[in-house]
Amino acid sequence: MTTDNNRVLIVGSVGLDAVSTPHGSVDRVLGGAASYSSVAASFFAPVSMVGVVGRDFPPENVALFESRGIDLSALEVREGETFFWAGEYGEDPNQAITHATDLNVFADFRPVLPASHCKLPYVFLANIDPELQLEVLDQMESPKFVAADTMNFWITGKKEQLLKVLGRVTLALMNDAEARMLTGRKLLIDAAEDILALGPRYVLVKKGEHGALLFSKDSLFAAPSFPIRKLVDPTGAGDSFAGALVGYLASTDDVSEPNIRMAIIYGTTVASFDVEDFSLRRLAALTREQIEERFGVLRSITAF
Amino acid sequence: MTTDNNRVLIVGSVGLDAVSTPHGSVDRVLGGAASYSSVAASFFAPVSMVGVVGRDFPPENVALFESRGIDLSALEVREGETFFWAGEYGEDPNQAITHATDLNVFADFRPVLPASHCKLPYVFLANIDPELQLEVLDQMESPKFVAADTMNFWITGKKEQLLKVLGRVTLALMNDAEARMLTGRKLLIDAAEDILALGPRYVLVKKGEHGALLFSKDSLFAAPSFPIRKLVDPTGAGDSFAGALVGYLASTDDVSEPNIRMAIIYGTTVASFDVEDFSLRRLAALTREQIEERFGVLRSITAF
Lengths: 304, 304
Hints:
By secondary structure, the first copy, chain A, is α/β, with parallel strands linked by helices.
């Protein structure tokens, strides 16, 4: 791998999922935040993935990553079993009920980046322990744009470390409930203001089917959602969104606010495909042409 | 009054409200769907209001309507008391708890239109008994655009008559919960499809702080909401929205789908002012310049 100006570094979980939704259920299918976000980003820019899997990780998953041109040189394969998550969604696609979280080889995961990876300009820190996110940041030389996702688990359990992460990223991602939980503020505008005060240049609050809000100290973007007819499996929607977002930014090498808006719309578009099938099935079959077509639909249904 | 091509007929309740919200409470202040929607529409087009009040209706309310140029020739004043509603909002601005609904003179209200009113081209049937909405429609000669609002109370209590109304209007307005209740469908896209099959050319589903969706058989518009910092009293937001929408359409005399999108954004804008204070206080102090300014903000925060 050669470092280039458009490559994205993605760090996070690569796992196997058992998922049940009103549309059916699947077992030991490809999952993990880094899987979704890397494949989503790969439609726009070259991706280097950092993570760990066990010896049981099915070769067809590796083949999928390779088919998307994803650099796996920093995807460790260790003795032991791959991270496993079992969960269920009822009628509310925003509420996963977790039945099992077996960290397995992920329990001892410490991201050690090859020298070439440390120079990469675009970084997505998927939802993992903020301590690990900090370790990645410590290894990066001078990234141009760092986006970090998080979740309620770290807000309650590792708040201090999470605040440090937020102080060092360009764009902080979280959902509306998490933004409220982190700040204790009810109005998202107020919550965002508090989060911006912690350091990130942008905070992007995801509202599921209601779109997303991008805040900076001097701007606001209210992003629409794509009207989804058939929501089969919401797993990975947020990761696909973030991956496509960072991938688009990297591909254009333009981190201006207007271009971040475009990146958010691409993220929304790719996430809308992700949820149409279980696991990464829909992403595996997706084409850039289909993304562009749906981007056009999103533009036309929001224009006034 | 002379009939003209841009005049809006608005039929609905004119009342007095006692409202309590986390921001305070007020008693016997101006309320009613026709009050909010007529004042909102008056920023764009001339308005003729049809309704009834009692002898107790405070003259300052009449003065407010007159200051907005609203034609009150079909606002009956009857012996008895004005319609009174007492309600409370907790943390959720979409959930009003009703403490009292005294119909008073409104109980026997039958809209009888002067001949001049029957010729008006733009009509807003605010949320009243669908039987009365039908009586209005029976009296209209050949309106160009009719919008009708409704609520859960009529969906459960007068469904048959409501379905008749929906078969005769251009645009049916309801909120997301009502669209689901009316059709028994969970996805709003499916609910809208069922409602369109009943006859209206458009169905506009209001989602409160999450914007609105305009559906027709061959188009979809996902309208944003305005990010409100200080929601003092949500009363009348939907009526202000609808009034401004129909008023803008009338003022431009253009009922094309792209222009309905513009009208929805104006509706969103005016509603965002309404909720900043109790009753019609903010609308009473509003100017067209302020509306245009906020319209511009809404455009800039949604552009990509």
